[in-house]
């Protein structure tokens, strides 16, 4: 970015920073001279990622659904660095399953982390962003635009994040805070790679046509996010065609319904068979991040089948 780099010296708090998109973004930001504050689960991995980012980076273990933990993390970041200039509300999980058969706790945990976790992160950090006239980036998804069967919890949570950011953007503009929304397609993270191994939904995704079924690299997201933060962008799209698709979201879902419904018919029965064979494991949040989210869930979410 050369002389256009506005991120050097900025304090950037990133949730879901132990792995995947959060970790990739943190590494790129630290290389530009930003002070990255990594917040998330998986303490050892989180701290290892912080070490990769250099001596100015810090790690704070916190579940984004836990108010007290988030408040403590934000306070720790401010105590160390004196301020927060940028927040990236990135933490998220995915649980695959049809509405009539998915484990209810897995569905609700997805909503709680992906949507309420974003709200809680923003609410806790917003006073600091107002003070610094900073930038807030929330992570939505292509799933907020194109609503596929077997992804109701994920799509609903990401569509909620999209709407939340639109309202927030108008609310804080006069306070000097800019708000951006990131929309990513399938990215080669542990979450997506694990979803691809699911006996039902991996097959469904493998049948997606053309670019809709392609998996994109985490490095592509890291580059785009850093560029977007530097510009305080209102929207970040990876790949770029997601931005075009967003303009026609209503038409996309109407036109795709006959095709997706046809594919869902057999998958619906396959999901029922899978649940019969594996129980709640069949719709447990996918990947290592999903497993960490299950372990951090409060006792009331015990139906997630924690062992």
Topology, pairings included?
Elements: E1 11-15, H1 20-31, E2 35-40, H2 43-52, E3 58-61, H3 67-81, E4 86-89, H4 104-132, E5 135-139, H5 152-172, E6 178-184, H6 190-196, H7 201-206, H8 218-231, E7 235-238, H9 241-246, H10 249-278, H11 287-296
Parallel strand pairs: 1-2, 1-4, 2-3, 4-5, 5-6, 6-7
Helix pairs in contact: 1-8, 3-4, 4-5, 6-11
Strand elements, count: 7
By CATH, the architecture is named 3-Layer(aba) Sandwich
Sequence of secondary-structure elements: EHEHEHEHEHEHHHEHHH
Our estimate of the beta-strand percent is 5-15%
Radius of gyration: 19 Å
Query: And the CATH topology?
Result: Rossmann fold
Number of domains: 1
| Low-pLDDT segments | 301-307
Strand arrangement, major sheet:
3-2-1-4-5-6-7
Count helical runs.
11
CATH homologous superfamily annotation? NAD(P)-binding Rossmann-like Domain
Considering DSSP H and I runs of 4 or more, what fraction of the residues is helical?
Answer: 40-55%
Molecular structure report:
This protein has helices at residues 20-31, 43-52, 67-81, 104-132, 152-172, 190-196, 201-206, 218-231, 241-246, 249-278, 287-296, and strands at residues 11-15, 35-40, 58-61, 86-89, 135-139, 178-184, 235-238. It has a single domain (8-297), classed as Rossmann fold, CATH 3.40.50. It is an alpha/beta fold. A 7-stranded parallel beta sheet has the order 3-2-1-4-5-6-7, with helices on both faces. It is built from 11 helices and 7 strands.
């Amino acid at each position: 970015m050369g002389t256009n780099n506005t991120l050097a010296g900025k304090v950037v708090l990133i949730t879901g920073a132990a792995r995947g998109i959060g970790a990739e973004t943190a590494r790129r930001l630290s290389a530009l001279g930003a002070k990255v504050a990594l917040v998330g689960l998986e303490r050892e991995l989180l701290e290892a990622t912080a070490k990769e980012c250099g001596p100015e980076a810090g790690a704070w273990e916190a579940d984004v659904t836990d108010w007290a933990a988030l408040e403590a993390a934000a306070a720790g970041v401010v105590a160390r660095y004196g301020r927060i200039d940028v927040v990236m509300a990135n933490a998220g999980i995915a649980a695959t399953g049809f509405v009539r058969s998915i484990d209810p706790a897995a569905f609700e945990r997805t909503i709680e982390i992906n949507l309420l976790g974003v709200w809680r992160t923003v609410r806790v950090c917003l006073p600091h962003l107002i003070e610094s006239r900073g930038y807030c980036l929330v992570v939505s998804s292509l799933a907020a635009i194109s609503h596929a069967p077997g992804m109701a919890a994920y799509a609903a949570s990401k569509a909620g994040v999209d709407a939340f950011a639109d309202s927030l953007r108008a609310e804080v503009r006069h306070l000097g805070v800019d708000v951006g929304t990131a929309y990513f397609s399938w990215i080669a993270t542990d979450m997506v790679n694990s979803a691809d191994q699911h006996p039902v939904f991996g097959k469904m995704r493998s049948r997606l046509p053309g670019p809709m079924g392609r998996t994109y690299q985490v490095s592509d997201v890291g580059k785009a996010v850093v560029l977007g933060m530097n510009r305080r962008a209102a929207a970040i799209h990876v790949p770029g065609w997601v931005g075009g698709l967003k303009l026609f979201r209503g038409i996309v879902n109407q036109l795709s319904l006959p095709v997706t419904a046809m594919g869902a018919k057999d998958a619906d029965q396959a999901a029922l068979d899978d649940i019969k064979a594996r129980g709640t494991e069949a719709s447990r949040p996918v990947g290592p991040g999903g497993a960490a989210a299950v372990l951090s869930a409060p006792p009331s979410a015990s139906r997630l089948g924690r062992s």
